[in-house]
Specification:
Layout (H helix, E strand, L loop, with lengths): L12 H15 L3 E5 L5 H7 L6 E4 L2 H6 L8 E5 L5 H14 L13 H13 L5 E5 L5 H12 L4 E4 L16 E5 L5 H14 L20 H14 L4
Parallel strand pairs: 1-2, 1-3, 4-5, 4-6
Length: 236
């Protein structure tokens, strides 16, 4: 306020959905379980929504060791950038151990994360190497690399084209490129340009699903833009 700066809350609407679920269930007296990875910024933020009665599990083994006080009023939410397959196993273990547990009406995992994981599975059938564009601390990017490896394809996580080791491409007839949910398009373009220059690769786009989901702009940004338009019409 002192510096007259505008603060815009650009939290992903899907993460806000999880926060709302947590606050609603906590208010209704539920003991809560979060499926996620310890230390991830999203997990830290979700755990911070309520003061207590919140457990974090990251594996089926964690579920087996979990001690809860209330097996009747128990609910779970998930980190939005998990591996779909990994999450399914943990949810199954929770339902097996706690038959009355309540989950979200719709899956919490981000549609973009799920679509990219499905794309990597399809990509792994067609290529010899997979390059995943994303930051080392990006949960969904790491899951893409792990998924490629699980499909039997050497997979590497890169921040940009500068991280590509030519040794990875030796003997490869086809190279797959995937990107984390937050990786900008310019990084993909640069990696494609690098491969075109370094090897005689032809570029083919693999479309697994068309993404047509749109979200409203943050209300703070809408208010700022509205104020600008109003001021533009005021004579000076």
């Amino acid at each position: 306020n002192q510096r007259r700066l505008h603060v815009i809350d650009a939290t992903c609407p899907l993460v806000i959905k999880v926060h709302n679920e947590v606050n609603r269930d906590y208010t209704q007296g539920y003991e809560l379980i979060l499926i996620g990875h310890a230390g991830h910024p999203e997990v830290i933020g979700t755990l911070g929504q309520v003061p207590d009665k919140f457990h974090l599990v990251s594996s089926v083994e964690d579920v087996e060791k979990l001690k809860v006080d209330n097996t009747v009023n128990l609910s779970y939410v998930t980190q939005t950038t998990l591996s779909v397959d990994e999450c399914r196993d943990i949810v199954g273990a929770l339902h097996q151990r706690f038959p009355n547990i309540k989950g979200p009406h719709q899956e919490d995992i981000c549609y973009a994360t799920q679509n990219r994981q499905n794309a990597v599975k399809e990509l792994s059938r067609l290529v010899d190497v997979i390059l995943v564009i994303g930051s080392p601390n990006s949960s969904n990017s790491n899951r893409l690399r792990e998924l490629g490896e699980q499909c039997g394809i050497p997979s590497y996580l890169i921040d940009s084209a500068a991280d590509i080791d030519p040794v990875w491409l030796e003997g490869a007839k086809a190279v797959g490129i995937a990107a984390g949910a937050s990786a900008p398009e310019i990084l993909v373009t640069e990696v494609v340009a690098f491969l075109r220059a370094a090897e005689p690769f032809e570029v083919e786009e693999l479309t697994v699903i068309e993404e047509d989901v749109e979200f409203l702009l943050p209300k703070e940004l809408v208010q700022i833009e509205s104020s600008k338009k109003s001021m533009a019409g005021v004579p000076r």
